[in-house]
Design goal:
Chain lengths: 118, 406
């Protein structure tokens, strides 16, 4: 099964521009982690900070464009992994090892598959 | 229909578990078993029950499950192929216990997966592993039946869609997963235990907890916490006949007549307890069971209550789990060993969120204030306890103590 592991952290931990020493250090840990995952890893990326986010919102009328993330939250989506593992326990085992700076959370979501369209 | 009910009681969980594991689908297992049960109710008129009712139910349910899958496949063009039941050596045997593989442990681990909400885990386990009806569980958890049914549907869907494995977890996940199983069973048992009279909505399901804890201890004979849980449920259940006085008021543990306790249950509990203690240095669950065991070793009211041993065990427990509940219980024992004043000082030092809404806190405090002769404060504390909505037995006991203050 494929799962998306979404990394939520307080992006302030990375400094104002999400750049510099902290980011470099964490990026190195992610690089090593991705290499360890090997064939389990299907995809993934780190994201720039929410100040760079733009949101297109669909309401009743035309789609409107907004500055900022979809939702203002204490912790923000900062990156994701897409992994292919046998079951939820295996996904949890991977999620436990995802590098984090301090407090944060990794949300595990199964990816929709063709045979889910029942 | 006695034969049918007995067959279901004896083998229902095994059959549902075997179906669930075979088809990797909890709903399908439940529905197929319900189909088989309905067919049996029609077919087994008095005296016509088959020689091996459990094997009959299993075979019929298995066939119904395959039929249901086939129909689902025809209906939905994208529906998956049903997993082919793997031929096993057991299939050739006629013995029922060989025919129906024992997958109950796997089923318990599925129902108690940490990815399912804790309260729902307990309900799901009682439903699938104990076979309790949804309305019975709903009453036990004080939620409307429709709400509980909805939670069960959601949990089963989550288990299916999120890919919860139908396996006993491997060593890396084992501590977390066994802990989730035991916490779930503790939640379930706490509901049954609260009802001292055993006449409320939980009546009968304390017995399910005895079964379930025995099963877990048999399946995991090297796990001290599983053994301790089996011991704890037995120790606690043994005291049920002494927990209420003839007027329906709660009787505190130290005032219960050990002559009324179920000796047979205590004798069942003792070996579990001994094995749990022999296996490893005690963990909180093992220590808690040991505290129950120390009480149950009391033979009569003429013997001194085992307060020094209880206090010593709470001291050990405190080293593992330092929280307000443990400290409160320790203070109650301390009052009996060292006197009311130091115990009261301990209780007044407690500070935890939610303590104000915790009935045992006010009840223990009221009792100590009463014994210290601080009548006005004791009355206030009793009133605080009574305002928290105690059950009938607690209310009668607290009310009597409150009235006795003079």
């Amino acid at each position: 099964m494929k799962y998306m592991l979404m990394i939520y952290e307080d992006e302030r931990a990375y400094g104002p521009e999400k750049a510099g020493a902290v980011l470099d250090a964490v990026a190195a840990r992610h690089g090593a982690f991705a290499a360890e995952l090997g064939p389990v890893l299907v995809g993934g990326a780190g994201l720039k900070g929410t100040p760079t986010a733009t949101t297109v919102r669909a309401g009743t009328g035309a789609r409107t464009i907004h500055d900022g993330p979809f939702a203002e939250t204490k912790e923000q989506l900062g990156g994701f992994y897409l992994v292919d593992v046998p079951d939820l326990d295996a996904a949890i085992a991977v999620a436990r090892r995802v590098p984090l700076v301090g407090e944060g959370a990794v949300e595990i979501r199964p990816v929709l598959q063709a045979d889910d369209a029942r | 229909m006695k034969g049918l009910e007995e067959a279901v009681r004896a083998a229902g969980a095994r059959i549902v578990a075997a179906l669930a594991m075979r088809f990797r689908d909890l709903d399908l297992a439940e529905e197929a078993f319900a189909d088989a049960y309905a067919r049996a109710a029609e077919a087994w008129t008095d005296g016509a029950a088959p020689a091996d009712p459990a094997a009959w139910l299993y075979r019929v349910a298995e066939r119904r499950a395959v039929d249901r899958l086939r129909r689902a496949r025809v209906r939905g063009r994208l529906a998956p192929e049903p997993p082919e039941p793997a031929p096993t050596a057991e299939d050739a045997m006629t013995d029922e216990t060989r025919l129906i593989p024992d997958d109950r442990l796997r089923l318990i681990f599925v129902c108690c997966h940490p990815a399912v909400a804790p309260e729902t885990r307990a309900a799901l386990t009682l439903r699938l592993v104990c076979g309790l009806a949804t309305d019975v569980i709903a009453r036990a958890f004080l939620v409307p039946e429709a709400t509980l049914a909805q939670r069960l549907v959601r949990a089963k869907r989550k288990i299916r869609e999120a890919g919860v494995p139908f396996e006993v977890p491997g060593p890396e996940a084992w501590p977390d997963r066994l802990d989730a199983v035991l916490s779930t069973l503790e939640i379930a048992y706490a509901k049954a235990h609260e009802d001292a009279a055993g006449s409320g909505p939980h009546a009968g399901y304390a017995r399910e907890m005895l079964d379930l804890s025995r099963l877990l201890a048999e399946l995991l004979p090297r796990e001290p916490e599983a053994l301790a849980f089996a011991a704890l449920v037995r120790f606690a259940e043994s005291r049920r006949p002494a927990r209420l006085d003839p007027g329906g008021a709660m009787v505190p543990l130290a005032e219960q007549d050990p002559g009324l306790w179920h000796r047979a249950l205590i004798e069942e509990a003792d070996p579990y307890m001994r094995r749990a203690l022999a296996l490893a240095s005690p963990s909180p669950r093992v220590i808690q069971a040991a505290i129950h065991g120390v009480w149950c070793a009391r033979a009569s009211l003429a013997d001194p209550a085992p307060w020094p041993a209880v206090l010593a065990l709470y001291d050990v427990l405190l080293r593992h789990r330092d929280d307000a509940v443990v400290r409160l219980n320790r203070a109650v024992a301390l009052a009996e060993v060292a006197g009311v004043a130091p115990a009261l000082a301990e209780i007044e030092r407690l500070d935890a969120p939610g303590l104000d809404a915790f009935l045992p806190y006010h009840a223990a405090r009221a009792d100590l204030l009463r014994r210290a002769g601080r009548t006005t404060e004791a009355a206030e504390a009793y009133d605080q306890a009574l305002a928290l909505g105690p059950n009938a037995a607690e209310r009668a006991w607290l009310g009597r103590r409150r009235a006795g203050l003079g």
